[in-house]
Amino acid sequence: MADETARPGEFDLIARYLRPLADDPAALNLTDDAAAFTPPPGADLVLTKDMVAAGIHFFPNDAAASISRKALRVNLSDLAAKGARPVGYLLGLALPADWTADWMADFAAGLAEDQRAYGITLLGGDTVKAPSGLTLSITAIGAVPSGTMVRRGGARVGDVLFVSGTIGDAALGLRLRLGTIDGTPAGEGAGHLLDRYLHPQPRLALAEAVRLHASAALDVSDGLVGDLGHILKASGVGARIEAARVPLSAAARALVEADPSALGSVLSGGDDYEILASVPRDHVAAYQLAAAAAGVPVTPIGEIIAGAGPALVVGSDGAPIRLERASHDHF
Amino acid sequence: MADETARPGEFDLIARYLRPLADDPAALNLTDDAAAFTPPPGADLVLTKDMVAAGIHFFPNDAAASISRKALRVNLSDLAAKGARPVGYLLGLALPADWTADWMADFAAGLAEDQRAYGITLLGGDTVKAPSGLTLSITAIGAVPSGTMVRRGGARVGDVLFVSGTIGDAALGLRLRLGTIDGTPAGEGAGHLLDRYLHPQPRLALAEAVRLHASAALDVSDGLVGDLGHILKASGVGARIEAARVPLSAAARALVEADPSALGSVLSGGDDYEILASVPRDHVAAYQLAAAAAGVPVTPIGEIIAGAGPALVVGSDGAPIRLERASHDHF
Predict the structure, then answer these.
(1) Average pLDDT over residues B273-280
(2) CATH number of A4-145: 3.40.630.40, 3.30.1330.10, 1.20.1250.20, 3.40.1000.10?
(3) pLDDT recorded at residue A197
(4) Fewer beta carbons under 10 A from the terminal one: N or C of chain A?
(5) A32 has a pLDDT exceeding 80
(6) Which of B131, B152, B331 sits opposite A55 (nearest CB)?
């Protein structure tokens, strides 16, 4: 039997779990209908909204703190790729009827941890009953000096393509979890891949370098090749990337060696949340230096070439690699 | 068998139905990861987010254009009550698997119509698969001259309480639809009440008057008495309202006369989306003039009194009216 005292109504839920997250004066302690937000002077606001839903973007039995952090981080990842500094966020929370106080406390603790880590605060939102599965809708707000948001459409022939971190870990982590891949990485490898799926790391430390040096950028959320395609389409250019230069973790490399189908997951699987950036050649050295100073590894994987069309992916022999699909479709 | 050509994937869906709604340059044609929004100089942004879910806030078989407009309007209503001019919005759309092209076209047409009516534009958003029922999460952005957002906490003893329009229509419309009320209003009365439930009218025309003259305000979404309680709590005051002065439509008045239980729905039912404002006595005449100039009827229903606590509702004999509940709980 449900303990009703442990399951407050909307106002108590907000007061107990969410108000402690809203320490910016603009949030008015979540006691008003809206936030009163004073934009930083001279800034453009970078506005992004990503929804995540149970069974589509996460497993319903994932830890609550993992779900809430993933929902927030996928939004922060967009801000990072646009070169923006995060400012705050609004949280829309459609809660299924069977939520518990423990679950909600864990959910809020995850957000609190990330707010500290990323220097942001909750500005407002809404909490409603979900028709069935948990659905989160976060609107994140970032800031850039006016006119400097990095877009998808600025890549030019000759630019070098860089990705941050390693690619494919999350997609392989998901396949491990689903049991759809042969082989298991040794040691802590499996844990690493599963963690990369559960806990994306928004590359906010790289945002300033991206803003100063990239001609175009986005975060890799649906798959490297497919997301690169968005840059190419918006920029009216092509690209050639070398599969062997795509940076892999040791665990991912082991899986690719054990099961060649894993390479497809690496190149076109989702949930990496690394930054793919095109960098003009005269900015390459500065971008690499700025990334190193920020503590974020970046790797050149190819270049922008003339001619519109999907990215050409070549193997170490120079021959094109044909992918079954370019990206992972969450929709 | 489903016609797959009529059911595009996420990118085509956005291009076909949502991109035409996004004609502000900040939206970048919805082809980027984020909007690049230049705030109006000297303004505070008013940020609000309301989610609506099938079976909770609307009937799954409501017309798509009614659902989309309701989702947008409940957000615009918050902006109006805060004295803000609407600027734009982001749309989070969790779509069940059985959506059709016709449904989506109707959904977008409703938004297009309201965008024209209210002078706003779509800035960005996200479209995902819904675990089951349709869920919409809208973040609306408004603007006020810096420091002038009308809050809940400014009501002072002696202020006059005004509501716009008529109260209770939507709650009675819902009861008519559910068949939980005796009597049927004559003529077009039932249609009026049902329409008030389906199509809230955000009082944006009144926003400037509210901003210039109200000490506190909110939109009545969960019920007049309950929502007044939020102003009282935030302001540390009490209120006395006279039930007989609460403005009713002819249809609502007929139902209250036929079924006394209807008075409870009027005073504590949800979905009115009228503006409740406390107005200092030396601003009352100016507020009434400004409201008349805006074409929005406003009616004084009581006053702010000393002492914290829930609103005192009195009948025409001066005796307190006891309500079963103060508000409608959507949660």
Answers:
(1) 98
(2) 3.30.1330.10
(3) 95
(4) N
(5) yes
(6) B131
